[in-house]
Amino acid sequence: MNKSTNEANPLKFTNFIKIMKLTLFFLFFSILLSQATNTFSQETEFTLHLKSATIKEVCKEMEKSSNYRFIFEGNANRAANKKVDLSANSQNIEEILDELLSGTDLSYRVLDNQVVVYRDREKREVKGVNRSVTTQTAQQQKKQITGRVVDAQGIPVIGANILEKGTSNGTVTDMDGYFSLSVGDNVVLHISYIGYITQEVAVGNRTNINVQLEEDTQRLEEVIVLGYGLATKRKDLSASVGIVADPESLAMRPVTSTQSMLQGQIPGVTVQANGGSPTSTPNIVIRGQGSQNGDGVLWVVDGVPGAPINSLADIESIVVLKDAASAAIYGAQSGAGGVIIVTTKKGQKGVSVSYDGLMGVRTATNVVQSLNAEQQIKMRQLSSANSGVGLDAGWDVNLNPYIGVTRTNWIDEIFRSALYHRHNVVLNSGTDTFKNRVGFSASKDDGVLVGTYNKSMGINYRGDLQINKWVKITEDFRFGQSDDRGVDTDSGYSGAIISAIYMPQSADKHYYTGSGFGGVTTEDPEYIAKYGSNYASIHGDVINPLRILTADDRYNRNNSFFTTTGMEIGNIVTGLKFNSKFSFYTNSGFYKNFSHMITEVGKPNASNSLEYSTYRNQGWKTENTLTFDRTFDKHTVGALLSTTSDYYSQRGFSATGSTFADESKNLQYFNFAEAWNKPSDYMTGPDANVALISRISYSFDDRYFMTASWRRDYAGRLPDANNYGDFPAITAAWKISNEAFFNSELINLLKVRGSFGRVGNLGSVGYNYKSQTLSSAGWNNQSQQYGFESDAGYTGTFYYNGKALNPKLTWETSEQFDAGLDIDMFANRLSISFDFYNKRTYNLIQSQSSGWPASIGVSPMLVNLGEIMNRGFEAQFGWKDRIGKEWSYFLSANAAYNKNWVADIGVTTGDGSKGVWTGGGAYRQVPYIYQTKEGGPLNQFYMIKYLGIFQSDAEAQAYTKDGVMIQPNAKAGDLKFEDYNGDGKIDALDRQYVGNATPDWTYAFSGGFSWKDLTLSLMLQGVQGAQAAYMAKYSLLGDVEGNFNRSVDILDAWSPTNTDSKIPRLSRSDPNGNFTTPSTWYLEDASYLRFKNITVTYDLTRMMRKCSHFLDRGSSLSVYFSGENLFTITPYSGMDPETGGWDALKYPVSRVLSLGVKLTY
């Protein structure tokens, strides 16, 4: 095998380079075209030949032949009446204005297509000022007016446009809202600003005018994107939709993913962190888990399912479709788990550069601690005494003084304060017809465990080209790369954290020679070197945790490329629009792990090895949509027809080799290995899907709303005869507050709504489920005699699927009913929403092994059997108000309750009775702890109940059945277990269903205030009713396996003088099975309330814009501080309660303190 010249991707790397070259060429060409378009707009050439024309008249001529609009500020009107002669051939606007205004005290500034002409005090007229009678008369007819523009709270409106109606004479308000303008008699001022209702004010004889603008609630009302072109106002929603209030503010938090950003924001959306590793991503469950196979959430980014998000700062809005009615239009793509729609920022008119970046420090909190050398000897002596066995002489400090000195706190060695930083730079360039946005993002997240990290970079480009009033072309390009290095912390023996606990603190972290890694040496290394070891076996063979974290050349790299080209044709007829999109994507990645040869005491690595794996996938998506939206009097109608299709395939490869003579990094290739295993490769797919979609919507008089949709999906991986599914939905709403009979000044909105919908999920049906088989005759389907789809004659040797195919297999289907109530009160300051839902998932996909003959030679076929229910209630509350002119504040809270149960488990046992789903959860010598039965929730804890600790031998002897001890080996200090089946002994038949990890309630509280330019916000988030199996207690608090070190908490074990302890007595043996019994002693309440975030922002824009240059540019600047995971209140005794229900010392969630800055120029 030849040495690879590029580690990043041995799978046809040249193809990837070609793609990148084409993409970068398109990106470069688009930016050039944008700049060319912008330059053309700014440098439109004029040919003018005018004699004895005023400056105003010249400007009006330029307005006629361009998109420019001239505004004469203040008393610049008077000077603009000067008459000039002008002859210009193909000159741009700057050249003409420089000539036109020479010899006057007038200057100008160009803001996009707006030209402001103003009097410049620093200029002096070159010519003398000999005014004619006409000019003096015109001056006498003008008068100077001043005024101020404020909003409803009296706050100045900066940059409001003041225009003399019917003319181009105008100005803008300054930083304090003041303006000054020279006008004629009996004029009307036109006053406007974005987001406010335009006002017209008659001047009359007044010289001072103060104006109060009112917010345009129609324009400011939030518009929600629901998918496939449907957009509606929040108050008009008839489906159950969650809206993230302010994603731009959330992006200031030091979080690493969009999933983390959503935690606590929307009721019914449960975000569960999978530990605090920089390589992990939180799991999202919407309204309860509906399948034992998982029902993942579909992410739709800018209308494209599965498109990536490179930067949190790019997000403009996030909408969660919680009910099946709103998600049904995505059909089986949604996976029955809900849909999250993300809209990213697009290019805007004008030229700007913006930067958003933060830097923070991570620290681990509530970290478990191990015994120091003196404490470990004490623990070892007590444990041996309680077991009735002698203590090895190596633990005698008189014989082995080395063992009694603390040298290394291993927990301090593996944990660190780690840096986290994130940067996003955006270049914006846009005109009326062509808008471009180019974003560059980079981040580095060093984990709190040494040697772990995640770093990424991304490039985004979005271009919108309006070819004419009918046709618009869009291009969306995204490239991302990530490098990460994680570590196993869950393994009961080789996990990094448990290894740090197991290691004696008397050992050095490195050999005394300074090279290599120290092992579990419990003697003086120099003595061992001279005379050998006298006590080599007194401890154990634990791996040095620093070796686990740093010794291997191990990392993982992934590249992603995603591009979407779209075309929109509008106004075919009024309200009719056609939209077409094509997306192509490819992802590639590789994993490398070179394990060095290490002569570590106790646990050496006698040989070196190289592990290498790589993959590449690619696919495409198409969407063609025709929409019609029209309003007739009080009737608003909408309709949609669409088709979608997609394709996906993946290829992968892996290999291992060992025995490298030279471990140099440039020689870590397979051709330098003396031994290597046969490489393996695989192919996933190809998989293809097609869908037909339709939707109609209707509303009447802003009172009655209805939407109905239907989608048919065709799935390539399902059997041909049954490969389609229909997913209908309907929603309706009634705005009672808009009825004539409803007259309340207190209630601004009262709306009831209801919905019903159906979505699909392919669950465990893999891409290769219906793969063809290879025979000497070619590709054929498998024989019907094995339950397959068709007869086929085979000759010679052939390979066949390991699982039988079911020709009737179809989707898991989830249907959901939702009823909701929305209320806005007190001038829209208070908003309240309630939702009740009933979610039924049926036709569960699972294997039916009962009655399946083993002689067939293939695994049981997948069948559609079973049903899971989720029923719940959600509530959301929000209040926002202003106190005076400078203070505003907000409060919000949300809570959700969900009950999950298996209504029909589907599978049966050999005798025809209901079966169960047996799960995992085993740890060291503790067997499985999960099992699901009909009538209970998914993934129930199936354990033996722990009843407390025997306080005396007599109490243990009195725990009997028919005079016989139920726990014959129990003594004082041992755990007491419930004999659930009453047979007089403790065994697997005494297991009970004792709860599950899913919380009953999730909730969050948010609040904040703004004062002048200072803003503060905070959030509390929590769960109630969750349980977790803290399996690490086996290793931390039990001394039944090896002479390892333990947690300091073991010193609180039960003893005759410490009878209130919940930890069983210390013992080298475990005759009672205190630690090996799968009991509820491991089970703990994992409810918690977490101070999730506090963010303080100071806006420096007002100060910055005192400089007219920054005011003209519309520049802005703000700085912010944010703290994440500040503290947690919980009864859970582990490092962190957010474990997902099973904890063997997961990578802990960390506290982050960060500083950031946002700048736009």
UniProtKB/TrEMBL annotation:
**Hydrolase: is it a keyword of this entry?**
no
Instruction: Name its GO BP terms in alphabetical order.
Output: iron ion transport
Q: What's one Pfam family here?
A: STN
Keywords associated with the record: Cell outer membrane, Ion transport, Iron, Iron transport, Membrane, Receptor, TonB box, Transmembrane, Transmembrane beta strand, Transport
Coarse class of the primary localization is: membrane
Where does the record say this protein resides? Cell outer membrane
| Ranges for domain Secretin/TonB short N-terminal | 68-120
Please state the span of the N-terminal signal peptide per the UniProt entry.
none
Give the GO cellular component terms, alphabetically: cell outer membrane
* PROSITE patterns according to UniProt: TONB_DEPENDENT_REC_3
How is it placed in the membrane, per its record? Multi-pass membrane protein
Q: Which SUPFAM superfamilies does this chain map to? A: Carboxypeptidase regulatory domain-like (SSF49464), Porins (SSF56935)
Protein family: Belongs to the TonB-dependent receptor family.
What protein name does the entry list?
A: TonB-dependent receptor SusC
Question: Which gene name does the record give?
Answer: susC27
